[in-house]
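ok so dumb question maybe but i'm new to this and my supervisor (M.) told me to 'just get the structure for Scytalone dehydratase-like domain-containing protein' and walked off. so i did the thing. is this what she meant?? sequence i used:
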Amino acid sequence: MDLPSEKFVEMMADPLFLGDPLVESQHFIGATKWERVSDEEIISHHQSRAAHQRFADDTRTTVAVKGHGHGTVTTFFKKIDGVWKWAGIRTKVIWNEYDFENVFRGAAGKNM
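this is what came out, is it supposed to look like this??
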């Protein structure tokens, strides 16, 4: 899928996803491998763990549900006019723990 950067940011910031004020998220990067494809292209491969939790209400004192994802992230970089730019991302979920499918109000994390 080719998704312009503006649409990617819009999707991530959606109130039904990471833009939800009741959701907290922390992403950890583990083992990393960098691959130089050419003088203008680099690919990075990362092990990842993403912890998420949804609070019960605006006081943010009680965690209603939590869910963590484990997988890999492949990031693509291209040199454009002499400047390295982020060119894309591919994620692969290997497994989720807890109630990941109930953290987000929208379609994220749901089996569709």
